[in-house]
């Protein structure tokens, strides 16, 4: 008997990405089990929409397209895509990133190996993610080093768990709660952490499932006004978690305070905020996470990139 596979819906947000949107689309078209590609364009002013229309004509029935009449902003546009997929699994990607060849096949293999019922079970398959920087350097996530994955929310808070490659049950998307509140950057984390809040089962695979090109998107070049909006991102996240009955332990609560003060320092260059950030970071150290919990690899990666930039 021929093996039946899940239908995978890819949801894509895009805005003024005429130079890179074809790379993203082609990476999705190369995947096995691709059922539909759902794209929401945030009223691009360049040729992005025309390029997408051409793809839709070349692959009839595969693409579902939405174009906002006005520019809604990244977070409201993301929530537009939540309404679009009808497949069994959902994969999210931005219009300037790509999905590595063969990833959906690896996801399907993991589903069959674990005996998962993709129509009724609620789960996420998460691979590794690669971040590529403008200088050509890169950093690969190592999610599997935290197996078993007992507390993905704690790890995500500390940027030790990267879910960009997640393929998750369509039913999970029905649990998501819109938080965009117009264009405010304060809602970023509350939107981004919903997978960890609502997903009961994570399965990790070693395959590369996402290539993220850092410092290229809209969020990479924020005005001072938007940076000030982001200062409240972790306070808003904390309120969202409480509204869903999620209580953080003491180290994680201090970690949110650390991130808030550090964002305040980045936005205002306030020395007291930097001191507060350091104090809260010390209080946030969680010995259960071991040496990786100190985030040393991320700091070393940042230092190496700055040193390399200085040598050029």
Number of helices: 13
Largest sheet: 8 strands, mixed
Cα(first) to Cα(last) distance is 59 Å
The CATH architecture classification of the largest domain is Alpha-Beta Complex
Written as H for each helix and E for each strand, in order along the chain, the element string is EHEHEHEHEEHEHHHEHHHHH
Q: Over the alpha carbons, how many angstroms does the gyration radius reach?
A: 20 Å
State the name of the first-level CATH class of the largest domain. Alpha Beta
Mean pLDDT: 89
Please tell me the total number of domains: 2
The name of the CATH topology of the largest domain is Spore Coat Polysaccharide Biosynthesis Protein SpsA, Chain A
Helix content: 40-55%
What is the strand content? 15-25%
List low-confidence stretches.
none
Number of DSSP strands? Answer: 8
Global geometry: globular
Q: Structural class of the secondary structure composition?
A: alpha/beta
Task: Output the CATH homologous superfamily of the largest domain.
Answer: Spore Coat Polysaccharide Biosynthesis Protein SpsA, Chain A
Short description:
The protein has 312 residues and is of the alpha/beta class. The chain has helices at 21-29, 48-58, 74-81, 103-113, 152-157, 170-173, 188-192, 194-198, 224-230, 233-243, 250-268, 271-284, 296-311, and strands at residues 8-14, 34-41, 63-67, 89-94, 124-132, 138-140, 167-169, 202-213. The chain has 2 domains: 8-220, Spore Coat Polysaccharide Biosynthesis Protein SpsA, Chain A (Alpha-Beta Complex), CATH 3.90.550.10; 224-307, no CATH class.
